[in-house]
């Protein structure tokens, strides 16, 4: 399995050719995230969806939630996060939310066919290759796999139980894929 940084680089190259909105990042290996960030991110999620967070509004809503919270993540980290879409692979080898570059090309050309059943997972990536995922733990909780939700905010290689597989990046992805109506669910 390739490391996240290599896969992310491939996703950036793929996305750049397609003129997606990718931030211009300086090379930065120093982490942006500290221990307090997960708590701050949970607070931002609760501000967005309410407390206690209704699982139905968080689980399966990765694209609108990450698009809506991207500005707050930028403010809290002093970094410019990029919306990242792709798949998640468990350490057992199963893949969730699988999508390919061919899928993304098709969606860019014709729009995503079913906004209620997007075939990818979305999260935010920082220049340090740290990821912020507001929805994966809620989805796992809704599926009965874990007892409670939370926010994943750490280096991609430090995530336990699964790996993130980026396919495309761009802060304009919801609009370019024709999915603005699901972003509007959260009044972005």
Number of helices: 8
Most strands sheet: 6 strands, antiparallel
Low-pLDDT regions: 182-188
- What's the total number of strands? 6
Average predicted confidence as pLDDT = 81
Strand pairing plus helix content: what structural class? Answer: alpha+beta
Can you summarize this structure?
The protein is of the alpha+beta class and 188 residues long.
List keywords for this structure.
188 residues; six-stranded antiparallel β-sheet; disordered C terminus; 38% helix; alpha+beta
Describe the structure.
- This protein has helices at 4-17, 37-49, 55-58, 62-77, 101-110, 136-142, 173-176, 180-183; strands at residues 82-90, 95-96, 121-125, 130-133, 152-155, 162-169.
- A hairpin with a 4-residue loop joins strand 3 (121-125) and strand 4.
- The longest helix is centred in the middle third of the chain and has 16 residues, at 62-77.
- The protein is globular, with a radius of gyration of 15 Å.
- Helices cover 38% and strands 17% of the residues.
- The chain contains eight helices and six strands.
């Amino acid at each position: 399995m390739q490391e996240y940084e290599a896969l992310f680089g491939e996703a950036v190259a793929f996305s750049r050719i397609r003129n997606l909105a990718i931030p211009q990042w300086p090379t930065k290996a120093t982490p942006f995230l500290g221990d307090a960030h997960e708590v701050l991110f949970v607070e931002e999620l609760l501000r967005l969806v309410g407390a206690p967070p209704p699982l139905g509004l968080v689980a399966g809503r990765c694209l609108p939630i990450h698009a809506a919270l991207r500005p707050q993540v930028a403010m809290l980290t002093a970094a410019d996060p990029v919306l990242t879409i792709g798949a998640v692979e468990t350490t057992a080898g199963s893949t969730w939310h699988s999508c390919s570059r061919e899928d993304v090309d098709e969606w860019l050309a014709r729009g995503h066919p079913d906004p209620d059943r997007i075939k990818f997972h979305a999260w935010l990536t920082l220049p340090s290759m740290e990821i912020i995922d507001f929805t994966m733990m809620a989805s796992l909780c809704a599926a009965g796999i874990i007892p409670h939700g939370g926010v994943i905010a750490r280096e991609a290689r430090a995530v336990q139980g699964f790996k993130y597989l980026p396919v495309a990046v761009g802060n304009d992805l919801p609009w370019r894929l024709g999915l603005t109506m699901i972003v509007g669910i959260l009044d972005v």
